[in-house]
Amino acid sequence: MIEGVYVAAVTPFRDDFSIDLDAYRAHVEWLAERGVTGIVAFGTNGEGPSVAAHEKLEVLRALADSPVPVIPTVAEANLPDTLALLAALEDFDAPGVMVLPPYFFKPASAAGLLAFYEPVVAASRHPVVLYHIPRFSVPIPPEVVGALPVWGVKDSGEEAEYTPAIVAAGREVLVGTEDDLATRLGRGGSGVVSGLANAAPELVVSIYEAVRSGDAEAAAERSARLRTIRDAATGFAARKRLASLRSGNDLGTVRPPLTPVTDDGALRELADQIEGVRA
Q: For the chain, what percentages of helix, strand and coil (3-state, to nearest 5) are there?
């Protein structure tokens, strides 16, 4: 069972765009100290499509003694590279692997997605989590999810009925959209994969715990607080910088075509506000 709060971990880059493994490890340790269940590496907030496969393996080896479980993301855009990376991940201890569908050829039919995912599932010893993020990739219909022997889906879409449809198909859901986290979790999510948890892990954990305990009022109030942070820190570079300010750990820059934050005054104020309302 995959449940709890997983952080969609940012990838720290130095000014020369190399990965800062020490900063990555320090960030994971800081998150673990604040009660998260684990991390998801190389997803959207982790700039996964900008990271080479050999670099991902290097990071995972560096996180072999991580204090929390690590779920790798496979987002290689084609079947051969996807299968090659899955083969390389076989020796890694992970609660699952998250696999993005090919995202260039749109629209993708249900038959095409099944033809992609069937060998993926057969090739992995780890439970497979499908990555539904229509904003950047092709959507994964519930009927495709239900037809595959997968753990379930990370739901990063906007559709209110998607999570209930996945649950009705007999699969699990990790909620990946933070506009109203309490409501989305209440629709049947087993857990969360949160990018904002890089900067506000305590708050995301407290929302998850409030939903699980049935404290709807606290969950709603804290979700509104998270939405304020979401609206104030827009873009991957801003959220990475906010996480640096909160943790005191320099998580560096972003890789092109993303561009770094040039004025972090508002983010510094936001970091202070988050610290002031820690749950």
A: 45, 15, 40
* pTM assigned to the model: 0.96
Alpha-carbon torsion 148, 150, 155, 159, what sign?
positive
From first to last of its 279 residues, the chain has per-residue pLDDT tens of 899 999 999 999 999 999 999 999 999 999 999 999 999 999 999 999 999 999 999 999 999 999 999 999 999 989 999 999 999 999 999 999 999 999 999 999 999 999 999 999 999 999 999 999 999 999 999 999 999 999 999 999 999 999 999 999 999 999 999 999 999 999 999 999 999 999 999 999 999 999 999 999 999 999 999 999 999 999 999 999 999 999 999 999 999 999 999 999 999 999 999 986 654
CA gap 225, 221 in Å, rounded: 6
Which of helix, strand or coil describes residue 34? coil
Between the CA atoms of 143, 149, 151 and 154, what dihedral angle is there, to the nearest 10 degrees? -40
Identify the structural domains of the chain with CATH numbers, from first to last. Answer: 4-276 (3.20.20.70)
